[in-house]
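Retro notes (design track)

What went well: tokenization of the new backbones is finally stable.
What didn't: we kept losing track of which sequence belonged to which structure.
Fix going forward: every design gets posted as structure first, then sequence, in one message. First example under the new rule, 326 residues:
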């Protein structure tokens, strides 16, 4: 397992210099131009790789109520309750009623943001670049521990009784992924499987899309899949809630740490409302809250920079050949 982890670290490091140069090349320009891969519908004047607020106030959005969504999960009703206390705080801070929108897929969440039906949300790690470049999502916060550490690791898991003990033994077997936009659920493991083991989907293993990390984890525990690539933070929470028995799962690979869900707002949200939204995240009393109980290893929200914190994700996407352009 250690050698596998070192292999992925070597891959990311080897690709880093070239890919980061490509990223920087796409970010150079004069003020007023669009940087990087942003849709032509947006403008990035300061080069932070995120869509700016429209200059014309007539293009600002002042909703009568804020629509909030958390990244798709197996049971949205569970997380509606988990977020309920925070959403009351968001209402009190912004002075606007807040509605929880239970999205069923990453694609539905992206489309809702692009169409202007979603104002505040948390996108999973792998969806953030698409959300930023295609929908005008402005990420500003992420959960973290008190010491500033954050993120999760991609794990390849198998049933506890499986004879598979290393990644190379997955040839010819069924591997569950979540969705094509997921970092740990598809993109990172695909780069890893290709570069380090020469394993290609359909040719060397049978890929299956479960839709969500929860479904992949339950599928492995129940023997529906030979293996799955998942975010270990989701697995930890499911074990803590008793949704799955951790003894029925075994990890054969664990990656370096990636940033976790990014929280943000629509780029054209009225600036006064956007400022209140940010205030709500950073003023929320975390200790003893439902979020504290659900995300036990986190201690609150910290400010983030898409350009800085999502650099490694953009490198993985580049290696995979993903374009953010519409």
């Amino acid at each position: 397992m250690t050698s596998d982890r070192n292999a992925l670290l070597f891959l990311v490091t080897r690709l880093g210099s070239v890919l980061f140069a490509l990223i920087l090349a796409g970010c150079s320009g004069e003020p007023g131009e669009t940087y990087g891969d942003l849709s032509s519908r947006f403008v990035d004047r300061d080069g932070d790789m995120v869509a700016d607020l429209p200059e014309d106030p007539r293009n600002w959005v002042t909703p009568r109520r804020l629509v909030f969504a958390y990244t798709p999960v197996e049971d949205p009703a569970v997380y509606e309750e988990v977020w309920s206390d925070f959403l009351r705080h968001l209402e009190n801070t912004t002075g606007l009623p807040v509605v929880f929108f239970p999205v069923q897929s990453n694609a539905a969440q992206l489309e809702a943001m692009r169409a202007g039906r979603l104002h505040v949300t948390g996108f999973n790690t792998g969806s953030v670049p698409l959300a930023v470049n295609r929908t005008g999502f402005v990420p500003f916060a992420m959960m973290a521990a008190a010491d500033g550490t954050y993120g999760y690791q991609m794990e390849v898991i198998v049933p506890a009784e499986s004879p598979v003990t290393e990644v190379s033994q997955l040839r010819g077997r069924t591997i569950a992924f979540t969705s094509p936009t997921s970092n740990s659920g598809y993109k990172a493991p695909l780069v890893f499987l290709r570069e380090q083991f020469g394993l290609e989907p359909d040719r060397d293993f049978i890929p299956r899309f479960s839709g969500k990390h929860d479904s992949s984890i339950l599928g492995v525990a129940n023997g529906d899949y030979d293996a799955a690539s998942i975010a270990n933070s989701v697995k930890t929470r499911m074990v803590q809630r008793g949704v799955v028995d951790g003894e029925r799962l075994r990890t054969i690979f664990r990656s370096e740490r990636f940033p976790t869900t990014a929280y943000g707002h629509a780029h054209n949200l009225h600036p006064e409302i956007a400022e209140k939204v940010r205030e709500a995240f950073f003023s929320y009393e975390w200790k003893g809250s439902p979020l504290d109980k659900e995300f036990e290893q986190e201690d609150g929200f910290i400010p983030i920079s898409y350009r800085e914190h999502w650099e490694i994700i953009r490198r993985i996407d580049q290696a995979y050949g993903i374009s953010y352009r519409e």
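Added context from the reviewer: The first strand starts at residue 66 and ends at 69.
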